[in-house]
Design brief:
With 163 residues, the chain is mainly alpha-helical. It has seven helices and four strands; from the N terminus they run αββααααββαα. Helix 1 crosses helix 6, helix 2 crosses helix 6 and helix 4 packs across helix 5.
Amino acid sequence: MGSKLNYSSYGKQYLTGQAKPVSDHKGRNVTPPDFRKDRQTALAHELLKPKYQVYGFKSSDLLVNLSDHFRNSAQIRYELLKLRARGVAVKMKSKLFYRVIQKGWGWLWLEITSSTYFKNPMISKNFKMDAAQLAEQPSKIEEAYDLINQGLSQITREFAVIQ
């Protein structure tokens, strides 16, 4: 990576338009990649390897490493179309190779890290609790207050003995 990217401003400017459908070079509407799906995330992780930015790749090359997620290279080409329409990957002229550009590498990295760490925070997770556990919750809090009060009264008694 020759030049450094300012990811804070980069994320604000570049990521805002990436979640909307765009038109490809033929004028077709292309849906955005969905990084909630395992196959799209696996593809993004694979494309983050530096060799794809330097040397390029074929969809059949990716199929070797992503055979758990894709059945054939046509499925990979479909997912690559979504990335190509957004300028993440480009097709090399007069060749059958694609290449991940630096801006695209940065976007993939931001997308994976933000979806892994920020788009699904723990506070939004659903916790399944039995009704009995929910009913016991106030009594546990009351027990905790009683323990605190017992501790404080013990401390105050000890201070009274010292004086």
